[in-house]
Amino acid sequence: MGTVRRYTHPARLQPLWDAIVSIRNQRQVPNRERIAAFMKRKSPGELPTLDETLRLAIQDNCVYTKTSKGHKGVKAGVEQESYRAPDSDLEGDGHDWYCFECHENGDVILCSTCHRVYHRVCLKEEFLEAEVFSCPVCAVKNLLQIQVEEDDVWRQSYLCFRKMDLTIMEAKAKEQEYQSLEDVVGAVHNPLADLARQMLRDCLYDIAEIRLCSDCYRMSNEKADKHWFCQPCDPPHELVYAKQKGFPFWPAKVLRIHENMYDVRFFGGYHER
């Protein structure tokens, strides 16, 4: 049976907090009128839902009401209802407030082995049929543990120079024991290790791309519209005409310059270095 952990949608809660904090920083009372004016400028689409968002945020204890006196203008000294954002960290109760799959609020079920929660519609039927709910992430984590028969434990010392699975990695990460990427990599000499090494190569490639430009990496994966490649990054890249052997000069953006060598991404249907 599910439970509602939070009623306020996260995308509506954050602009509301921004409005309250900004108005208070101007030494004004964050009443509904000022919050509405702020959100009309910053988040026009949220204005029709402001009253509902305020009501739900108060119900979730994410926003508090307070009677305050005005400091400026015609309302100076006049008591009026105002709103306050939390001013301290929230002590959790062991579970998240939003669905791990879609990141939205609503009726969710709690994983019995971790902090994650899910809407029923966000889960496959096989997880709903279990008597005790364990989420998809925990199911995968359990599958990826190195399973060794008790009589074959000795084999580990011959084939695994250093045993490593997701459970061990999670425990070490919580204890902040990792000092470098190499600390994560174990040495396992069997065919399954080839898959692990390929995954590592993919991760290292992605990390290198993120270091070059996190905006380019994000937009190339999101592809929010057909002109994603033309969206400016922060800071924007230098634009040049570059060419590869056998091809004409073509417009491109520079991602890196190293010893007079330019690492570029070409504009057009195919984007190559």
UniProtKB/TrEMBL annotation:
Keywords per UniProt: Chromatin regulator, Isopeptide bond, Metal-binding, Nucleus, Phosphoprotein, Repressor, Ubl conjugation, Zinc, Zinc-finger
PROSITE patterns cross-referenced by the UniProt entry: PWWP, SAMD1_WH, ZF_PHD_1, ZF_PHD_2
Subcellular location per the Swiss-Prot or TrEMBL entry: Nucleus
Keyword Zinc belongs to the record: yes
Domain PWWP positions: 236-273
UniProt domain SAMD1-like winged helix (WH): residue ranges: 4-80
Domain (PHD-type) ranges: 96-141
Major location category of this protein: nucleus
Domain of life of the organism encoding this protein: Eukaryota
SUPFAM superfamilies linked: FYVE/PHD zinc finger, Tudor/PWWP/MBT
PANTHER family given in the database record: ZINC FINGER MYND DOMAIN-CONTAINING, ZINC FINGER MYND DOMAIN-CONTAINING PROTEIN 11
The protein's name in its UniProt record: ZMYND11
Organism of provenance: Cordylochernes scorpioides
